[in-house]
Every structure is written in structure tokens, then in C-alpha cells.
Design goal:
Arc Repressor Mutant, subunit A, 2 domains, three-stranded antiparallel sheet, single chain, mainly alpha
């Protein structure tokens, strides 16, 4: 039968606070662990209860209690013997609980070696036998770090995309040609640009240098801020696959419902189209080494 103790004392090893500080046990796990320890039978180190009982008695979330009981058992702070198919209270053993009364007074419960509530194993307090409480927490963290390390190694082992340097070189030439007369003639480049380019290559595995150069040409002829950092627009470079865009993101020269195109605008569009065609002819003649006539 479950019992909640409201008087008396309980022995608590101060080392549990080191586990909390080192991250071996979380704040919610610590709370649930302490509630179980404070209510355990001081003569055995066993508490008969359940997640639902803890939640009802201490006004906690049943899911929080259930999840943290599972984590505590996984990290070997406790060992449970629930009855399958029933929601009643069941024995919960506290590993390394030091009994203060009864036949095993002065000994510590070895919950890990105990096979059932009827076959409890106790170790002498001064012989160092048995694993320390939370030994599984160290194993748990070690496995977690190992998984993260393996992920990092797998990430590092990935072959770099051969297009990266080719596309970056194209961007540098594009930038120098487009912004030669500005106060920022050299392409700004840091981790943000590099990541944006990596994202583009990852999302477009079949994108080749020729198509990329053509999209850069289209952007150069578009009504956009040409000195805007590449990382801002590089992920959207495919928007220019169909041709130059106006300031509204529409194909350049397209008539909008809200405003007509006057003759001056029509002449400007025709000039842009002619320049685009000339640049593309130059690009085809020179090959992919230069960015559509942007020069070296």
C-alpha cells in the first residue's frame, strides 16, 4: 500500500546535487526522485506508488511523473516492478538507499541486482560494493555524446560539392562586374554566404554552371538592389531562371493591372532584352569559364 510520510527524517546523499549540477539528472527528474526517496520505507528503501499517485498527491502532471520515472529507471537511480495491465501502485526500489531501521539497518539497497521485491539485495555501506546511484546516468550521457560525435564525424566525412568553388568564382566575377563603380567592389563573403550557397547546391543537385550563370545574368538585368549581400538572395536565385524580374518580382516587361507601360518603358525593356541576348551569345562563345562576359 502506498504511504506518504509527513514526519521524521530521511538520509539523502549530497552527491545527488552534483549529478544535478553536472546534468546527469534533470530538475524534474530530481524532484520526482526526491519525492520517492522521502516517502520510501526506511527499513527497505522501497516505495509503493505510481506516476498517477505522485501526480495526484503533489499536483503534478501525470505525464511528467511517468516520463521522469522512466528516465530515472533508465539512468539506474531506481528500479520498478509494475504489474502489467494494472494502474495500481507497485514497488519502486531506490538504488543505494541507506536503510536506517529494521534488519538491514546500516546497509544500502542494491536495486540493480535485486530481481524482485521479494529478492532484495543489500550491500554494506563501507565495502564499496555495488554501483553508485545514477551510474546509468553516466552511461546514458556517454552514449548521447557518442551519438552526437558520430553525427559530427559523418557530417565531416561528406564529400564537399565540387560545384561550390565554381559557383563562388562565378559570384565574385558577377559582383565585380555589377558593382565595379560602387564603394563595395569586392564580394563580401563569410559563413552566411557559404551556407546559403551550400543550401542552394543541396536543394538543386542537378544545377550546373551554365544554368547558374544564366540566372546571374537575369538578376543583373533585373530591377533589384545589386549591392545586397548574396546570402539574402542566393537561396532564391532560381526565381531568375525564366528571365529578369521587375521590382515587384514579376517578369520584366509584363503589363500590370494597376499601371500600363508607356513608350519610354517599352524602349527600356527592348534595350534590356537586346543586351541580355548579346550577353548570352558572348557567354556561349566564351564558355563557362567567365560569367557571361563579366570579364576576369
Amino acid at each position: 500500500m502506498a504511504k506518504f510520510r509527513e514526519s521524521g527524517f530521511a538520509k539523502v546523499r549530497r552527491g545527488i546535487t552534483e549529478h544535478l549540477r553536472d546534468g546527469k539528472i534533470g530538475p524534474n527528474e530530481f524532484t520526482v526522485y526526491m519525492l520517492i526517496l522521502l516517502n520510501a520505507d526506511p527499513s527497505t528503501g522501497v516505495w509503493h506508488g505510481s506516476a498517477g499517485l505522485l501526480a495526484a498527491w503533489y499536483s503534478m502532471s501525470p505525464r511528467t511523473c511517468r516520463d521522469n520515472l522512466e528516465k530515472l529507471e533508465q539512468k539506474e537511480y531506481i528500479k520498478r516492478f509494475p504489474v502489467r495491465g494494472k494502474h495500481a501502485s507497485y514497488p519502486i526500489l531506490i538504488h543505494r538507499f541507506e536503510c536506517s531501521t529494521g534488519a538491514v539497518s546500516g546497509k544500502r539497497l542494491n536495486a540493480i541486482k535485486s530481481l524482485s521485491c521479494d529478492e532484495l539485495v543489500y550491500d554494506l555501506c563501507d565495502d564499496g560494493a555495488g554501483e553508485s546511484a545514477g551510474a546509468g546516468a553516466g552511461k546514458y550521457l556517454e552514449k548521447k555524446r557518442s551519438r552526437e560525435k558520430n553525427k559530427d564525424l559523418a557530417r565531416d566525412k561528406r564529400e564537399p560539392d565540387a560545384r561550390h568553388m565554381i559557383f563562388r568564382d562565378a559570384l565574385e566575377r558577377y559582383w565585380r562586374h555589377t558593382n565595379a563603380s560602387t564603394t563595395l567592389p569586392e564580394l563580401p563573403w563569410d559563413g552566411r554566404e557559404a551556407k546559403a550557397l551550400d543550401d542552394l547546391l543541396s536543394a538543386s543537385p542537378t544545377l550546373d554552371a551554365g544554368a547558374f550563370l544564366k540566372m546571374l545574368n537575369h538578376r543583373r538585368l533585373s530591377e533589384v538592389n545589386q549591392v545586397e549581400r548574396c546570402y539574402v538572395w542566393l537561396r532564391k536565385i532560381t526565381d531568375y531562371a525564366g528571365g529578369p524580374l521587375d521590382r515587384f518580382g514579376k517578369p520584366l516587361g509584363e503589363k500590370h493591372a494597376t499601371s500600363g507601360i508607356n513608350r519610354a518603358q517599352a524602349r527600356t525593356d527592348a534595350n534590356r532584352a537586346a543586351a541580355q541576348a548579346a550577353l548570352e551569345r558572348i557567354s556561349l562563345a566564351d564558355g563557362d569559364a567567365d560569367v557571361a562576359g563579366f570579364g576576369t
